[in-house]
Amino acid sequence: MDFPEEVEKVVSTPARAYVRDRKAMASTPADVKEVPGALVFEIDMPGAKTGEIKVQVEDDHTLVVSGERRRAEDKEAKYQRMERRMGKFMRRFPLPEDANLEAITACFEEGVLTVRVEKKPPPEPKKAKTIEVKVGGSSEG
């Protein structure tokens, strides 16, 4: 057993996973726009299939879009170039406090995932409570 080689394997495995995950996030472009009453996320996912895409909301108001693009296996093909990214992808988006986590929709069409997060209406301003002022008499208390 080559001790330095074994140490290199142990140390570099988490680093490689971190780099792979960062690349997966960086190579999944997204636009986020605010429209009246909602936030809309448009995420490019060319080559993905609906069964490969997962949209979740974490407890801390974070929208997570993840999945995996798979290349169809072709045993007779010999690639001259492979530039299209395949494999796992993930994007995380913090949601505002007024996001309605019960009103989120997702639609996948022509390689673009559109996630719409409705916003809760702003709370109505609290009205001041009016206390009746009586003339004379005493107040108990």
UniProtKB/TrEMBL annotation:
One of its GO terms (biological process) is response to stress. GO terms for cellular component: cytoplasm. Transmembrane segments: none annotated. The keyword Lyase does not apply. It holds the Pfam family HSP20. Residues 119-132 have a biased composition (Basic and acidic residues). InterPro entries: A-crystallin/Hsp20_dom, HSP20-like_chaperone, Small_HSP. Residues 65-92 form a coiled coil. The keyword Transit peptide does not apply. PROSITE patterns: SHSP. Keywords: Coiled coil, Cytoplasm, Stress response. Residues 119-141 are annotated as: Disordered. It comes from the Eukaryota. It is found in: Cytoplasm. Residues 21-134 form the SHSP domain. Belongs to the small heat shock protein (HSP20) family. This is Hsp20/alpha crystallin family.
